[in-house]
Amino acid sequence: MAFVSQHQIQKGSSDYFLTSGDKIRFFFEKGVLDERGNFLIPKEKSVSKIGHALHAYDPVFKQVTHSSKVQELGRKLGLERPVVVQSMYIFKQPGIGGEVTPHQDATFLYTEPLGRILGFWIALEDATQENGCLWFIPGSHTRGITRRMVRAASGSSTCVEFVGSDPAYDDNQFIPLPISKGGLILIHGEVVHKSELNSSESSRHAFTFHVMEAKDTSWSKENWLQPTPELPFPSLYT
Questions:
Q1: What are phi and psi of 74, to 5 degrees?
Q2: Which domains does the chain have, with CATH numbers?
Q3: Calpha distance 200→179 (Å, rounded)
């Protein structure tokens, strides 16, 4: 799934991002504010995403995340103790919806062992090649990861930093996955995926959340996102 755009990665140095795991916060598209913080476009067209605890605090998205259909799917997939770690509403605004560069979700949500993160990506509008559907490299989930985003050391000028580096991905390896409104894409934590800039006149709204199989799994204390006393990772099956 589209986890962060390049702009949002850069904003990761802000406490606003780092402390958003147990809150509902808003993130803007790049270039929608002038140097004084005034909007250059209509406000309703400026938001890139809302995250990262919609599943816990918004009754609509909480109901969707813990719906009987999602729980049944989790059981069919063999998930024994799945917990919800984060959720996002992604807008992919028409004309300006930012590119999400090739990445693996486990880069940002690291577990030991790997293979314990699963993304649920629900299309709220038709996702096409024109408005920025997801693209994947088939089979890339079998190759592990070479890059992680971790919390920076105390006293650093930034809140997060990257360790390791991504390989150079061949654009010809990616295949598009257009999907109709209401469709669901399940995303392995290590599969390489991306989305292009939305230069069309149509938005591409989606709701997405990540689940971790908690049985025999260690959640890295270096991850930017951490459970808190106010919001421990809730069970998917509640």
A1: -60, -40
A2: 6-219 (2.60.120.620)
A3: 16
Tokens read off for 53: 């605890």
**Separation CA 218–CA 110 (nearest Å):** 9
Quote helix, strand, coil % in the chain, to nearest 5. 20, 30, 50
CA 15 – CA 159 distance, rounded (Å): 7
- Which phi and psi angles does 187 have, rounded to 5°? -125, 115
pLDDT attached to residue 30: 87
Q: Look at the alpha carbons of 62, 64, 123, 138 in this order and tell me if their dihedral is positive or negative.
A: positive
Peptide bond into 113 cis (omega under 30): yes
- Tell me whether residue 41 is exposed, middle or buried, using C-beta atoms within 10 angstroms of its C-beta: 0 to 12, 13 to 18, 19 or more: middle
pLDDT under 70: residue ranges of the chain: 1-13
Report the predicted TM-score, pTM, of the whole model to 2 decimal places. 0.92
pLDDT digits (tens, 9 = 90+) for 56-110: 999 999 999 999 999 999 999 999 999 999 999 999 999 999 999 999 999 999 9
Q: How many CB atoms lie within 10 A of CB 78?
A: 8
What does the alpha-carbon distance between residue 183 and residue 201 come to, in Å, rounded to a whole number?
21
